[in-house]
Amino acid sequence: MARMQVGTGEFNVVIDGADDAPAVLLSNSLGTNLHMWDDQAEALRTRFRVIRYDSRGHGGSVADEGPYSIEQLGRDALAILDALQVSKAHFVGLSMGGMVGMWLMTNAPERIGRAVLANTGAHMGSPDLWNTRIRTAKTDGMAPLTAATIDRWFTREFQESAPQAVERIAQMVRSTPAEGYAGCCAAIRDMDQRESIRGITNPVLVIVGKSDPATPPTMGGLIADHIKGARILALEAAHLSNIEASNAFNRALLSFLSVREADTAGAPAKAVPAKTAPAKAAARKKPAAKKAAVKKSAVKKTTAKKKTAKKAAAKKPVKKAAARKASKAAAKKIAKKPVRKSVVKAAKKAAKKFARKAAKTAAPKKSAKKAAKKPAGKKR
Is the CB of residue 25 less than 8 Å from the CB of residue 41? Predict the structure, then answer.
């Protein structure tokens, strides 16, 4: 733990982790101090350089007379980074700390990497609520505010199951300087970042508690809707979700903050080769290839036509002229072959028989013709 002079006052700052690791700045809620982050610092220190500080008016930091503003609290955070020579850091803020984070991303986005905004709001209701708390703190101190604060910050189940953790936070509230608490209440009262956060471009994770009456899930939903690309995570907890659901909270932090910007920006564009001639040559070859493909398809079509024509011709009936030619050709082939003697004798006998029959039939025909030529005689 170290106290450092920042601007007009001293701030209580604690640093964990390696000096050359990526920096993460943690900003506490109203009424607590940097020890609200003990569980998170233990989980983050192996990968990050964890920077915790007591906000103005809290813990061991300066608690000058208020009222304060969110801008003033944001400039305190920047001054601490400057004093540590940290040009850019991730940011984790809960409740009032989340409001500081929204101001930082709106007004100094280059100083913030990825940001977690937990159990917070961009606008916190009626001024009367905050004016009542300011009067109570200044008049009666922090004791009257502690019991009601604990009931808002933790569910009844957690209060019964983890009384030591609850008492540790209650002691932080009781020990907060009344003037510092009142000054920060005024900063929250006068804040309205509902429109300005629309310009945030940093990667953002919004965490809400399902049972949080101080900053209901609808407030976190509005922040996630107004910040382009923001993610939202709901935990089984009330207001101090980093304590009531510490394991789930820590897993979300490690997962979200460990993403490198190069991974989210997408793969770098491929360099264009200096020589473009091969590309042109390839472009010229493409039409030739198309022509060759056309020729091949044409050849295939013609061969297919020939085959179909042959099949069709085979199926068609043979014409008489073609039959005569075929018979003559067959006769020539037969004539060329040597004829046996027995076949010749048989042929001669058949010829003689045919001649006899022809003579018999021809004789009557001739006599009939002669008779037809003679003139008809007179009847006797």
Answer: no
Output the six-digit token pair for 57.
Answer: 């008016």
Maximum separation of any 2 CA atoms in the chain, in Å: 184
Q: How far is CA 57 from CA 131, 215, 323, in A?
A: 17, 22, 123
Two tokens, residue 65:
């007379």
**Regarding beta strands 9-16 and 89-94, do their DSSP bridges make them parallel or antiparallel, or are they unpaired?**
unpaired
Looking at the chain, how many residues does it have? Answer: 380
Q: How far apart are CA 199 and CA 104, in angstroms?
A: 12
The per-residue DSSP string of 112-156 comes to EEEEEEES--SB---HHHHHHHHHHHHHH-SHHHHHHHHHHHS-H
| Pick from 106, 60, 53: nearest CA to 81 | 53
Q: Which long-range contacts (CB under 8 A, 24 or more apart) does 142-150 make?
A: 142/31, 142/173, 142/174, 142/175, 142/176, 142/178, 142/181, 143/174, 145/31, 145/173, 145/181, 146/170, 146/173, 146/174, 149/31, 149/173
Global pTM value: 0.70
Written as tens digits, the pLDDT of the chain (380 aa) is 688 888 778 999 999 999 999 999 999 999 999 999 999 999 999 999 999 999 999 999 999 999 999 999 999 999 999 999 999 999 999 999 999 999 999 999 999 999 999 999 999 989 999 999 999 999 999 999 999 999 999 999 999 999 999 999 999 999 999 999 999 999 999 999 999 999 999 999 999 999 999 999 999 999 999 999 999 999 999 999 999 999 999 999 999 999 976 544 333 333 333 333 333 333 344 444 444 444 444 444 444 544 444 444 444 444 444 445 544 554 444 344 444 445 445 545 655 665 565 555 444 444 444 444 444 444 43
Collect all residues with Cβ–Cβ distance below 8 Å to 160 and sequence separation of at least 6. none
Report whether 173 contacts 225 (CB < 8 A). no
CB-CB contact of 179 with 63 (8 Å): yes
Q: CA 214 to CA 98: how far, in whole Å? A: 14
CA pair distance 23, 1, nearest whole angstrom: 17
Domains and CATH numbers, the chain: 2-262 (3.40.50.1820)
One-letter amino acid at 353 equals: K
